[in-house]
Q: What sequence folds into this?
């Protein structure tokens, strides 16, 4: 049986009144809320006319809700409708009245407002803000009525009125003036073959076919391009600082030669750029974000090939040293309009040759091989060649993603080296920050991040680090649960520094979202010195969100003289790692080591809320490690090495009457261990004595075991692991749901087979 929130969502989405009626018989679903959205608000969002006919007035004055999780599909649909109003709803409930105004259903809003007897002052405030953001107009509340300033007609309304007028005029002409007159008033398309720039009226809606190369002279500019230009295989040669303003028409079958920045300020909603090759060789010094083709895209950019060489130098904007400057190869911002029109970039190819980036520290600059910021759809693009950078962060495809990045491949070698003491170099194969969806993307290029600065005074409030990842640096959002899904890294990862911490991962450095069905085949090398730390994982460095069904086959090498946390899947976690597999060798040299075939350090975190305490622990469930672990410590350092998890932290509550800690259950260690480590266990290196001895804890969701159902290959080392009793006092222990077994026994077990069945076929 589906949970109520899924059944409710499907009934609303399909406008299935019969299913909705059935839900109403069993529960008061009108008082449900999916994340930020009450039921009535969702009925408006999905225009469920049949259900609204019976329930609209019954639900309008409900103000108390039972909350459920918010599906990602709803978040995306609302984002496309809300536009700039989205900033009002980071955490606020979207009331039905507000949803109506966002959807421009003002007449309905006026009719229903008197029925919403408890419209709060905050709802009224947001109604005013919505209307001002959308139209710079006002709303007033007079007694039990709402007074809304008359807004301008939108495009659809104008088009509807125009069509009605045309129909009326045609009808009159047919009956009065004859068909010849009727034909003469209709717009007539005009085509022209051009050989000179003067032949093109950019403001017209004509179609032009270039029969020769056309040159736009230096500083040439037009406000809008409304026409259709078919290059017919010819060139458009752009002079320095020449621009074509807003594209409302289309460009196709054209080669463009440029030596400067963006050609278009914007590619608008119905505009298209298709089958265009853009060749750029530019030296650009700027304090503003930019790109080579367009600053903003709301339309379609398809089958564009960008061949870029030269250099971009980012200068900090005057008066504001904190502003971030984002740059993109093809587009600076791929955007979504308030009416839902989403910019699409697809099937593009980008090639970088002798291309470099340099930035001032205060410019805080980043570069995406295809786009700087993506709020729409970025699909099936390929990036090749090489990009080198100095104090300028790089992502192969996109710097910041708030939309959907899918089917893209980076083959370019990306390298950043910075000697600036105030700069943390970051390089990733696909995106720097993902706040929504990255799926079916591959990185095949080498990813390198280096800090070469000398010693400096470390600010304890901020991490000083060099970071390199195959897919993403961050996977997080304050509004939705972002995800990275079906992504592979095949490129080598290298992150080094002398006076900085090191983060390196096959897929993502820090993830508070979901990572699912991802794989790393690349070699990962992490190196630092001077007592600083390393966090290296085959999939993630820091897993604050769950990791599912993911595989690491890449070798991991970490070298330093401080503390290192290393794991076949994640270096550190306060989330669940499940149905994961690691076979890559793990080789660590450091003063203090936490290393595991799956997880290096199982952390624990708690958050106090109005309803109690939320506990988050790093847990490993249904995982297999075939990794060979080689660990060496320097000086008098200690190491905690486990076939599955290196260290399991515990934390006491209620005067230490209750202890919580990480879990290792239903997992298999089938690898090898070569080490002079202080403490090694086939399941865990070291865990808290309380979670080991009690081995279970109870929450509102039921009873959970810390350890159970684990097996390890019979290797002569019979230890489960060790427990921590006091500071640096350890006791080796056996048992706790772990047993040695032969390879034949393990491979024939049903649990082992079920794990393999759920791990990606690429294994």
A:
């Amino acid at each position: 049986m589906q949970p109520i929130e899924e059944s409710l969502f499907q009934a609303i989405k399909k406008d299935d009144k019969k299913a909705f009626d059935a839900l109403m018989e069993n529960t008061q679903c009108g008082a449900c809320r999916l994340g930020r959205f009450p039921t009535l608000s969702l009925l408006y969002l999905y225009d469920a006319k049949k259900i609204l006919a019976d329930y609209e007035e019954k639900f309008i004055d409900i103000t108390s809700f039972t909350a459920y999780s918010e599906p990602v599909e709803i978040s995306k649909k609302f984002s496309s409708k809300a536009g700039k109003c989205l900033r009002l709803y980071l955490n606020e409930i979207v009331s039905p009245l507000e949803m109506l105004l966002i959807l421009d259903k003002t007449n309905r809003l006026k009719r229903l407002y008197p029925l919403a007897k408890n419209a709060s002052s905050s709802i009224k405030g947001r109604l005013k803000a919505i209307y001002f953001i959308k139209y710079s107009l006002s709303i007033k509340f007079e007694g039990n009525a709402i007074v809304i300033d008359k807004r301008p007609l939108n495009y659809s309304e104008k088009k509807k009125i125009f069509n009605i007028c045309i129909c009326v005029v045609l009808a009159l002409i047919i009956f009065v003036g004859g068909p010849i007159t009727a034909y003469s008033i209709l717009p007539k398309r005009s085509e022209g073959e051009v050989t000179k720039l003067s032949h093109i009226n950019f403001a017209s809606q004509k179609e032009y076919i270039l029969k020769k190369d056309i040159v736009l002279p230096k500083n040439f500019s037009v406000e809008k391009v409304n026409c259709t230009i078919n290059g017919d295989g010819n060139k458009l040669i752009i002079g320095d600082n020449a621009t074509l303003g807003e594209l409302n028409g289309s460009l196709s079958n054209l080669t463009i030669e440029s030596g400067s920045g963006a050609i278009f300020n914007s590619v608008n909603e119905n505009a298209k750029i298709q089958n265009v090759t853009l060749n750029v060789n530019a030296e650009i010094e700027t304090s503003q974000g930019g790109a080579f083709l367009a600053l903003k895209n709301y339309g379609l950019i398809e089958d564009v090939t960008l061949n870029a060489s030269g250099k971009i130098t980012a200068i900090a904007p005057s008066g504001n040293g904190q502003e971030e400057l984002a740059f993109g190869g093809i587009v600076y911002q791929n955007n979504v309009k308030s009416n839902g029109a989403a910019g699409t970039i697809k099937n593009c190819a980008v090639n970088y040759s002798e291309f470099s980036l340099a930035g001032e520290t205060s410019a805080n600059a980043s570069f995406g091989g295809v786009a700087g910021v993506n709020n729409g759809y970025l699909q099936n693009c390929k990036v090749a060649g090489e990009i080198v950078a100095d104090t300028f962060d790089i992502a192969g495809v996109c710097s910041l993603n708030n939309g959907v990045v899918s089917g893209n491949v980076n083959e370019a070698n990306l390298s950043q080296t910075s000697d600036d003491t105030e700069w943390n170099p970051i390089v990733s194969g696909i995106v720097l920050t993902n706040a929504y969806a990255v799926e079916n993307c591959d990185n095949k290029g080498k990813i390198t991040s280096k800090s070469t600065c000398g010693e400096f005074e470390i600010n304890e409030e901020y991490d000083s680090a060099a970071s390199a990842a195959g897919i993403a640096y961050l996977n997080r959002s304050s509004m939705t649960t972002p995800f990275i899904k079906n992504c592979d890294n095949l490129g080598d990862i290298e992150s080094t520094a002398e006076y900085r911490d090191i983060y390196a991962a096959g897929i993502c450095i820090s993830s508070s979202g979901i990572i699912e069905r991802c794989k790393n085949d690349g070699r990962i090398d992490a190196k630092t010195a001077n007592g600083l730390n390393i966090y290296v994982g085959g999939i993630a460095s820091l897993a604050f969100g769950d990791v599912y069904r993911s595989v690491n086959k890449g070798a991991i090498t970490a070298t330093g003289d401080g503390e290192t946390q290393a794991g076949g899947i994640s270096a550190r976690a306060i989330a669940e790692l499940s149905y994961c597999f690691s076979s890559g060798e793990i080789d660590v040299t450091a003063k203090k080591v936490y290393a595991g075939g799956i997880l290096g350090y199982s952390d624990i975190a708690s958050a106090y809320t109005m309803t109690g305490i939320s506990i988050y622990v790093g847990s490993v469930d249904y995982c297999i490690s075939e990794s060979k672990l080689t660990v060496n410590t320097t000086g008098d350092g200690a190491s905690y090495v486990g076939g599955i998890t290196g260290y399991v932290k515990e934390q006491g509550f209620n005067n230490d009457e209750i202890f919580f800690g990480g879990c290792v259950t239903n997992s298999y260690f089938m690898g090898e261990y070569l080490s002079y480590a202080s403490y090694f266990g086939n399941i865990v290196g070291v865990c808290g004595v309380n979670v080991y001895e009690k081995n279970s804890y109870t929450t509102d969701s039921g009873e959970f075991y810390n350890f159970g159902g684990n097996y390890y290959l019979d290797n002569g080392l019979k230890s489960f692991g060790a427990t921590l009793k006091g500071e640096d006092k350890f006791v080796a222990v056996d048992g706790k749901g772990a047993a040695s077994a032969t390879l034949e026994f393990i491979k024939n077990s049903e649990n082992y087979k079920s794990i393999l069945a759920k791990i990606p076929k690429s294994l």
Notes: The chain is about 15% helix and 45% strand.
